[in-house]
Amino acid sequence: MVETRRDGERVAKEIRTSIVRLQLRPGQNLDEAELSEALGVSRTPVREAIIQLIADGLVVRDGRKARVAPLDLDEVPKLYDALLMSSRMIQRLAAQNRTEDDLISIARARDRFEEATRHNSGVERSEANLEFHFAISSAARNKYFQSFYDQVLIDTIRMARASCSSQPLSNARSDPSLAAHLEETTLQHRLIYAAIEQADAATADKLAVLHHKLTTDRLKKVLFSSMTDDAQAPNLTTVSGDWKTSWPACRDS
Question: What is the CATH T-level fold of the domain 2-68, as seen in this structure?
Fold first, then answer.
């Protein structure tokens, strides 16, 4: 029983990674037999993993079948609104509740991100960034906010990757705007860590707002870089809690 549970946790982790990396696409059916063969386990841990991923919001039931949760571009404004509110609370709580072990985990993920940036590894960089924010979420010591924030964070990454996945990948050496974005991201990560280390909740909150703006500005640039010249990019700012935007679909490059 213990081994089965561990297998289920391992399988859930591997499927989750495949979903975030878009190796399993939004809406794709999850075949238990294929997954069990590919992962070298019986169907039981695969079923347990699917149950967990349904609870996490990454998989949905469609009759008897399970499939990767779909993504709706029209939901992007609401998603990023949720990211802003939850990240502010998470960073405030992390500054108030973090332990020395938490600081070690946050710093390790921060350094991993910077290392991936130096080596121009896009996948590694993205996953290190996710690890950095998950470490902060864990340091908040509030399972309700953590669960909500982690789900929003994963969905923002899935949305950003899926929205324009047909566009060619760029790297910091060939894309000056990406290089500038990564430089600013690195700086903000360091400032966020410092605020949490110093138990400065107010500064951690302010930095969450700045980091959110950095993220949405980059998303807008990437998402609409292939729009026609006369197309209007959306306004990713909120007024009185409401998003003022319309979201045209990306066209192929």
Answer: Arc Repressor Mutant, subunit A (1.10.10)
